[in-house]
Amino acid sequence: MEGEAAQLYFEVFSFLVKKELRDTMRFEGRSRKPPRDEVNCLLSFFYSLLANDVRSALEGVGLDPAVGFLHRERPGRPSLALDIMEEFRPYLADRLALTLINRRQITASDFIRTEVGGFVLKDKARKDVLTAWQERKREEIEHPFLKEKMTVGMLLHMQARLLARYMRGDMDAYPPFVMR
User: Fold this and answer.
1) Domain housing 78
2) Residues 164/62, Cβ–Cβ less than 8 Å
3) Quick one: pLDDT at residue 19?
4) With 80 as the cut, is the pLDDT of residue 116 above it?
5) CA dihedral (57, 62, 64, 69) positive or negative
6) How many domains does the chain fold into?
7) What is the CATH number of the domain that holds 50?
8) Start-end of H helices in the chain
9) Does any domain span residue 163?
C-alpha cells in the first residue's frame, strides 16, 4: 500500500514545481541511486538527512531503528526510521525542497551531472541546503496531538517518544504526525 501511495504521490509531484521552472528543474518520477534529475537529487539529500535525524530520535528513546512495521527488515536498513520518516517526508523534506526550488534559491546550476547520468549538489549548494534544513528545524509549530509549541526538529523526537510510550503500553494508540 505504501508503495502504491508513493507512486501516485510522485506522479503529480512535478505539478508542485512552478510551471516556468519545470524545464530546468525537471522531475520525471522518483528515481534514486543515482537520482536522474535535479529534483530527485534534492529529495534524496533531504530524505537522507531526515532518515538520520529520525534514527537518532528513535535511538534516543531506546527503540531499535532497524525493527519496523511498514518497511521490510534487511541487514543495515533502519526500517523503523523509514516508517516514521513517512510522517515527515511531505511536511519537512518535500515542502522544503519545493520552497527552495520555487523561490529559485536552488537552481539547475547548483547541480553537477555525474558520469553515470545522476546528479549531485555542488559544494556551495550543499552548504546552502544544509543551512535551510537547520533553519527549517528551528521553526516553531504547535504539535497537532499534544497542542504544545515546539521546534520542527523537536517533532521527530516527540514522535519517537510517543511511539515508545505506545509500544510500552502507556498509550492506547500511536498518534501519527499529521499537519492539516
Assistant:
1) 32-167
2) yes
3) 92
4) yes
5) negative
6) 1
7) 1.20.120.920
8) 2-12, 38-60, 79-88, 95-102, 123-138, 152-167
9) yes
Say if residues 159 and 177 touch (Cβ distance below 8 Å). Answer: yes
Pairing of strands 140-142, 149-151: antiparallel
**Three cell numbers, residue 47:** 530524505
- For residue range 17-48, list pLDDT tens digits in order: 999 998 888 888 888 888 999 999 999 999 99
Rounded distance between C-alpha atoms, residue 89 and residue 136, angstroms: 13
Q: How many other C-beta atoms lie within 10 A of the C-beta of residue 143?
A: 16
Number of helices (H), then strands (E), in the chain: 6, 4
21 in a domain, yes or no? no
φ/ψ bin of 76: left (φ > 0), alpha (ψ from -120 to 50), beta (otherwise): left
b/e burial code for range 19-45 (CB count within 10 A of at least 16 → b): eeeeeebbbeebbeebbbbbbbbbbbb
Tell me if 23 is assigned to some domain: no
β-bridge mates for residue 84, sequence order: none
| Predicted pLDDT at 71 | 66
Please state the pTM of the whole predicted model: 0.90
